[in-house]
## 1
Amino acid sequence: MVSLKLRAILFPFQMEPRREMLLQELGEMWDEIGEAEEDRREMLHALEEDCLNVYRVKVAQVKQYRAQLQREIADSVAEVAAICATIGEPSTTEMRRRREERRRKFSEVTELINRIEQEMKPSKQLHLTMDNSDLTIRRLEELRAYLQDLQLEKDSRVRKMTELMGSLHSSSLVLGMDFRETNLHHDDEGDISDDAIARLVSEIGRLREIKRNRMQKLQDLLATMLDLWNLMDTPSEEQKRFQSVVCNIAASEDEITERDALSVEFINNVEAEVVRLERLKECRMKDLVLKKYDELNEIRRRAHVPVENEDDAMMMFDAIDSDAERSLILERLEVQISEAKDEEFSRKDVLEKIEKWQAALEEESWLEEYNRNENRYNVGKGTHLVLKRAEKARALVSKMPAMAEALITKVVAWEKERGAKFEYDGDGLLDMLEEYNNTRKEKEQERKRQRDQRRMLGQGTGESPVVRPPPKNIKNVTRTLSMGGSSMGSKKASVSVSSRPSTPSFLKSPMSARRSDEGQMLLSRAVEEDDLL
């Protein structure tokens, strides 16, 4: 094992565990190889000499460095003394001045640091003090860097306080509140401490909560006001007073910035107006119900859907005393109006085709009357116009089968989509069209029979055959469809009769004995056209 003396020489200080392990490992290896005690002492002595040599070298180097420093210090002292001698002042005075100047700089920096820290954290008790034992440039630069960081933080807090104060003033103006009504202290505007910022943030949050509550209340009042305006058809002149604020009904919190837009006084004015409209609604409720019924029935008339009896509805309305139940009636009417509009829109394509179909029926009816008139071939004023209309009517009537098929296709598609029967003024439209098709077939057969009979009579006697009127059921079906159904028959009939061009007077007079060449040509052309029918 290594002797204690060697340990003291090799490791005069407290040995580390690793060095202890190395010595222990060396002794174990000597034991394993059977190293003689004498050889061990020689090796340890050699190690001791090596360690002492290392110490001697290190001590010599330190002595040399110390001598160099001493020479440099001596040269510096001599230089300072020479400078002081040159300017005629002792060396101690100059150094004192530099020290005082350094102290002053330290004092300014530490004072600014303490002042800014006091502004930002007034509750902080510990303050930075100047250490006279360390007045080096390095320490001064450290303090200046710390001061710069504090100034940046102060500038950031000042900007934040400015933004928060602006937000607070804006919220106060919107709410119609005096700034003195807030929970801030009188001197908080210039305070940038953590407590002042926290109080300001808390107060802004409180005002925002008030703003949200008032905004919700105002929007609810405005929604009610709009409903009442629409319900009672309030004139635009009466709405002008609140038109400027109605636009805020869907505005967000940040979009409402007008002065006193959410003040208590303004909200009270809106609330008073809503109360006034509510009272006015109670007086006009019956008129509103009548108006809504008229609107509903007008939509149903346009859609040719059966209308309701207003008298029965108004008797039921008069029997109700509760305003809530009357409001429910209005709400149900609004729903029915919406459903009627949807129904009207879904029937639009079919109704347009029915309108064209009715026009074709009117022309067909006119053409039948024209063909039954014995004086239709008389030559006179306006004859060419009548013949031109007859030609157009025949062209339109020839398209009626295709029109009927297209109308049936539309109706079938509508009934399949809606799962209901398409009724036109209370009658099934498909049934009416089927009846018309049957009637048309009967009319075609009747025409064919008349042509055959006329041809036979013409060949037998050479006289003109008497044209028989069409069967009664054919005329009735044509008039029913042309008048738009049973319930609207009278109204449609009056319109169709007034809109139909009147028959010229010369068609009602006896046939003239003298005919011009032009009359003969028109007559022959009309006969040919009649035969084609």
Note: The longest strand covers residues 423-424.
## 2
Amino acid sequence: MTSKHFLFLFFFIFCFSSFPSHARFITGRPSPTGLVSDGISTVKNLPYLLLKPPVSAEESCEQSYGFLPCTTTVLGNIFLIIVYGYLMYLAATYLSYGSELLLEILGPGIVGGLFLPMLGALPDAMLILVSGLSGTAETAQSQVSVGMGLLAGSTVMLLTVIWGSCIIVGRCDLHDSVAIDGTNTKGFNLKGAQLCSTLFLAKSGVSTDIWTCYAARIMAISVIPFLIVQLPQALSSTSGRHLAVLIALIISLLMLVSYCVYQVFQPWIQRRRLAFAKHKHVISGILRHLKKHALGRLLTDDGEPDTEIIRKLFETIDENHDGGLSPSELRALIIGIRFEEIDLDQDDAVSKVIADFDTSRDNLVQEDEFVEGITKWINEAKQTGGSYLESNAGTFKFIDHFHQQTKREHALLGSEEQSDEVVENVENPRWISIKAVLMLLLGTLIAAAFADPLVDAVDNFSEATSIPSFFISFIALPLATNSSEAVSAIIFASRKKQRTASLTFSELYGAVTMNNVLCLSVFLALVYVRGLTWDFSSEVLVILIVCIVMGAFASFRTTFPLWTCSVAYILYPFSLGLVYVLDYVFGWS
């Protein structure tokens, strides 16, 4: 049986078996009057399998849209949560697949920066929206905790369980605090009866590029609306809560627009930064080459550029001795240096050198221009690399420091492939476009149709078990809305490359950022429009702690040893425990 047939059969059984029904309890105990029982029991506290006493007509569940199944029993609601959750998982999968197809056709930019982040957060936004729309204000106030549980649970799960799992599956050997792509020789030592050792935890891990740090910083900044909306409660003020919700909503929407604009222009910014880093690498390479082949000292005794030596170097490069360096002679110089560390476009490097040196704009570098240009480069390297005296050489060590710094800067910025915006030709782009649109429409329709029934099932399960709906939605709903994203991130991280690791963690930080701006904007709009009470201090505190801790952790480092996954994993049970203690011990809620 195919997966599609199984899905239809599963849905049919679900619809057939979950419609509400009511019956009388017939007891086998004889009547004390000797009369025949009419089927109505007078026995109380019966041991029902489903843990819920029979409900009256007034307490019976309400069918979503008037026909979708519902139940008031524990097992029935568990079944409904699983089914509706699976349908939301399908919606998230279709949205993700359609987004990838659309990205394949149109490339990044507007698609990758604007539509993809919003589509990824659409299932969460749908669930949050319907949690506060249905019923009266009292009903909405009760069900909106489902939306807050999803918002907090999704953020915490992405930054703890998924983040830590990506570190484990993507780990490589660390050398000089940088992960080496495709290597994993420091595994578990079973022979020594050590499942974990300090060497294993510290000498293997994951490295990312500098853009991933920027994504983590943006994620940490995106918690500002949470701070604003929580400010009146922190000051024990009741008069300004509604105004604080409005201000936080405006700030959140502005941050959403700003983030989308940044995502649209980020590929262009990344290419410009990468091109500049390559140019600095060319400068450092040429300076090292000139230092190595200098006929005398490249610097004078007082540390200034030695113009006479630079002129002699010019003569050695000027092969035809015509007093000017042509593009072909500069190209020969760059080829001779062999920039093996970077994927260098030699013609582009030549054009940039000429642009730096050729002040007369005659497409030749004259001797005076060469001396002036090299002098400027040396002074720039002294400012960047520092002036460390090199023993027994009569010159300065700053050139080597400058070269190592530019090499590391280029590595942190990533590869050209990662920032390239050119889309490769695909076969039958029209059909792929139609398929992408259909997938996006199908995912959106499924998410819109089954978000409300899922929220109702969670609320009914909460009533049947007396478990707060926040904890149910915190644990269960993110598994439905973020499973496809989590599986994709873990599979991508398992390729054990810096580029894939950078993309994986950037997507995780981006997903949390969209939770903090888009999903929070939806939530705040519900609270403001429907006049609901903002009473989520413990939940907000958990989001702030996890986002700030993980954001600060990832903002200032690009290498994460294996031991860092334990920090992420610990935060998940800590978050659940903190909410429970604050709400049910200290009475925050």
Note: The longest helix spans residues 241-293.
## 3
Amino acid sequence: MNATASATAANSSFYSQTQCRLSSDIRGSIPFSKMKRFLFFNDVHPRNSPLVLVPRAADPNTGKDSNVGDDEVQKQQRVMQQPPMSLSLDDVNPVGLGRKSRQLFDEVWRKFSGLGQISRTIRSDDQEALDALLVREGPMCEFAIPGAQNTTVLVVGATSRIGRIVVRKLMLRGYTVKALVRKADQEVVDLLPRSVEIVIGDVGDPTTVKAAVEGCNKIIYCATARSAITGDLFRVDHRGVYNLTKAFQDHNNKLAQSRAGKSSKSKLLIAKFKSESSLHGWEVRQGTYFQDVLATKYDGGMDAKFEFTENGDAVFSGYVFSKGGYVELSKKLSLPLGYTLDRYEGLVLSVGGNGRSYVLIVEAGPSADPSQSRLYFARISTKVGFCRVRVPFSSFRPVKPDDPLLDPFLVHTLTIRFEPRRQKPVEVNATTKQDLRSFKLILEYIKALPTGQETDFVLVSCSGLGIEPSRRDQVLKAKRAGEDSLRRSGLGYTIVRPGPLQEEPGGQRALIFDQGNRISQGISCADVADICVKALHDTTARNKSFDVCYEYIAEDGRELYELVAHLPDKANNYLTPALSVLEKNT
């Protein structure tokens, strides 16, 4: 036997031994997620290369190879006579090898991911096997998330198309799961694993949701109205979200009080305008951006007042006719002992009026030395009527560009300024003439929003695609009202607006995450469920709203999308890079 045949035989023997060891390991203790790299390793060996065998020692009695028949000897001789095939670059191309390994792994994954596809009909024996997997001692080691065993998640709408998949994904990752359902008949019970704690209640009833949030750390809201009746939409999509957020906040406050403290999820009250005395300390001032010499030339007059009306409203109103002029309402803050604004991520104002825009100014620096203070500003817009405006501290910019970024710890003065410039007409009665130089601002309260690293409440909303045009406006109005209730609750939130839902396996196609109501494709229920579960501990998902759908090619001039490849692998953290480029507090 020549040197080439000996080397090929040695390689074949080594590969056979290695493959046997790998097969034994895969059957034995190797975790499931490691199988992908082993499939890749096995695929390195070219399938079309000849198998070169080393002849065994001849039997001294017969002259033939021991334990080898005549047919086998002839086959071995024919194989040995064939010239060995040489390896080409295509046979060892890492791209091709990776594609082959992914194809093999995807086939295994599709079979395994059937655990999460609840939309198909499940036989009773399959259901028992699945439940046995979910209720056994300890979660699957490769799917467990650190801290999941100490986290209880309440799934609202657990029997919905997305909710059923969310429940099983949470169970596989080691979470304790509670399910809020309207009725617990046998059909509903059969849809959920036996280890899930079922709570019977109606999201429209505040008394029943209180029991549901007891002992919960996070909430995933998948419930949706089953009809387009206005009352049903209001009860589930709007009032239901409000009731859950309020009950969850009350539960957190109750726990904090038992520990002689205050919930970290509670807002800090800075000012509440409920009486005449609450206006004390607020100062009305006037000014101009021009020098004093030019101020008189363009002086058209300005005036403002801050008063408590007979209707029980604190109203800041007036007009500015002077070019370059402004009026403002200011106060030096007095926070409770032991509280500083660096423990909070922004401000929320509950205001009403005629829809003007304002400049919010904070003064930061050592309180003992006003000369060292610096000014920071952020522009806010209001609506006709009442609204709540969130202003994160990260949105404040220094008045002097060379000044450092705002440090909330040093904030000591708050100012609300009105200036005629940059005012835009609001949508009101077309016959009503608007004077953009006058304003009226009704103040209800100013609070600081608590900071946090993770999401407390995940809400599955909708993008409006796939809904019948006759009922789309009603549905979206209720959905957006529910979203607003969540934003102003003070809880860390993630709002997911998927495209039309499809019943197909998840993790098969790339996803688009976007803000701006521009998506045009659908998405599988399993992908939406996976996003909800991943968002629970993803810091980039906190306080963000986004649309999501399958990948597609954008139209010319509208290529403003963040494309993220969603590979069917537990270790693939596709959500962080997708959400890191999106706007916060949206």
Note: The domain at 271-425+434-450 is CATH 2.60.120.430 (Jelly Rolls).
## 4
Amino acid sequence: MLISVQAMPPEPPVRCDKNGCNLYNSYGVWGDRKDCHVQNVTYPTTEEELRLAVAYANQNKLKVKVVSQFSHTIPKLACPATSSGNSMLISTAKYNSSIEIDAKNLAVTVDAGIGLRRLIDAVEEAGLSLVAAPYWEGVSVGGLVSTGAHGSSWWGKGGAVHDHIVGLSLIVPAKQSEGFAKIVKLEPKDQIFNAAKVSLGLLGVISKVKLSLEPRFKRSIAYNFTDDAQIENIYMDHAKKYEFADITWYPSKHTSAYRYDNRVPLNASGDGTYDFLGFQSNSILISKSIRATEKTMDNGRSLGGKCTMAASVLGVKKLVANGLKNGLIFTGYPVTGSQGKMQTSGSCLYSTAADNSCAWDPRINGLFFYETTAIFPASKFGDFIRDVKKLRDLKPDNFCGVDIYNGFLIRFIRASEAYLGQPEDSVVVDFNYFRADDALTPRFNEDVWEEVEQLAFFKYGAKPHWAKNRNLAFLDVQKKYPNFNKFVAVKRQLDPQNLFSSEWSDGVVFGKEGVKSDGCALEGQCICSEDRHCSPGKGYFCTPGLVYKEARVCRYSSSSPSPFSVGSGSDKNDL
């Protein structure tokens, strides 16, 4: 059902009319469901034009942000909008001409607007390989390094792409005598290099990125779908045994899929690819039907329907090896292929047939979901899994909703010297789950995912992925990074007028909670402390968690209000 051959390419993220421009993410809706409106956007094609754009913003005191030809950041980091309208966007969509490969020194220097797939193909053609890459290839090089994008590995330099950077050029505001903007070229020996590696677009505009390479190699991949009984005890051993290990956990089905993924010699037989099932193009009709079915089940509080769908999805993944292909199709394990064909995927991006698309394309009313991504110190992750299992075991069917998507994807990244990178070896868990069409529509079993979310970010102190998550995940995030103040000091040095800051990016980076309002907890804009933050009129009340008692979640009840109703005498203090 899920496999097709052609796609309708995504729309550009910036769309303009006579009233100005709007910036959208790939789902068509920001976390707060408010538009990001700016007066204009400029499209530099060279580094000098990029510098002139920054100079113009500086000279005219405009708030400015950078966006690429893609837009897969879920928080509003790229939105410069202000109430006064004095803002602009710089797009790197046309700044994408230069890929300079230094085969002797095993490095490549690229324009920041270059797409990841184009970079990988050029490097592989030169007989080299990029070791680390995110699983989704629809990103620019500048965007992926600035937000901490990663694959999975505890080996070598690790799975985070920014830890493979060996040089970087940054365009920052400057004095009038310097032309209002200047290019700063950074190397690892430079004091501010570790701030610039993961900068969230707050320090300036990345113009060039230099990445380390290795001689071209192949990988051999197999999945082992098995019982989940020992996942919390063996995840570290798994990461140490396989260079590109990951684990996908389907909690409602008590199943874990362990990815056995290591290098093999270049002369090993096989020309396989990894065309991840979730990133293949789908029939628009099928995507719309799946979404309509999921909405019907959610509105009807149908656990049985969700669990039947989850079982079907898992069955298909086993059958087609999650998108691995020995040739045209999957014929058996292991699947061996070159690094460039195995490390990332996104085939729904490329063809133009009008009857197929990426399943989440907002033009088709297809899949619409949240994506929570939590990054744990490796030593704490096992206890998190144990708590989630306790919650799961109270009623396993409550977890079918996440297994309809991709369960819990568990990956591994090494400790980083980047100020906004991970200070210790870490485990990353991603999970997607249903989002309602309307902000004030409660979701069936939303309390389960709110409790898992709060377990991760507050009980175990997990850090949110900078480019994903609902707003509540970023509460007090600055306290979780020991070098956060060093990053802020570099920002003050490079951007003293805060041209590259906005109310949206400040809300994420400084972990600010907005004003609480009716229904704010339904979409993760707040943590409920009163019933009105949920949807009491529809039977959803603010209640403590079932396993993590300190959590406050919106749970459905057909009977009386919760202890957090106004006038109940309960403690209304915010978490």
Note: Residues 303-320 form the longest helix (18 residues).
